[in-house]
Design a protein that fits this description.
The protein has 137 residues and is an all-alpha fold. Helix 3 runs parallel beside helix 5 and helix 6 packs across helix 7.
């Protein structure tokens, strides 16, 4: 039976080099994070289609706040604990905002930039909104 003790012995003797496998695991985990982030961004873009003009303004303000004043990662758990998926569509917007905030905080700086660029290319009003607030993407 192959166990951790035998693996450690073979690694220490130079028989097995685990660096390749560790690199593959990091690459695989990175791929999962990229896929998860892309899925989250697609969800948000989909939600935007159903939002009223007032809700879009609220979202835009929230996005700028999150982008400029990145919060503590512990806020992620607070946001997830307060999710309430019950109610009609009008009540769904606050839930979507909380979920957006939690997701946004977990994205890398590059993910955030990509999302902002996507929004500015899709929505000229949003691009002007950012420009008026001196947010450069």
């Amino acid at each position: 039976m192959w166990d951790a003790q035998i693996t450690r012995l073979l690694v220490s003797e130079g028989v097995i080099d685990l660096s390749y496998y560790h690199a593959q695991l990091r690459l695989r985990d990175s791929g999962r994070a990229i896929k998860r982030c892309s899925t989250q961004q697609l969800c948000i873009l989909s939600w935007r289609e159903g939002w009223s003009p007032d809700q879009l303004v609220t979202f835009n303000q929230t996005l700028v706040e999150e982008y400029i004043y990145s919060g503590d990662q512990s806020d992620l758990m607070d946001g997830l604990e307060n999710l309430d998926l019950s109610g009609n569509g009008h009540e769904m917007f606050p839930c979507q905002l909380r979920l957006f905030r939690a997701w946004f905080k977990s994205w890398t700086a590059e993910d955030k930039q990509t999302f902002l660029r996507t929004l500015t290319s899709m929505d000229q009003d949003f691009a002007q909104f950012l420009q008026l607030r001196n947010v450069v993407v």
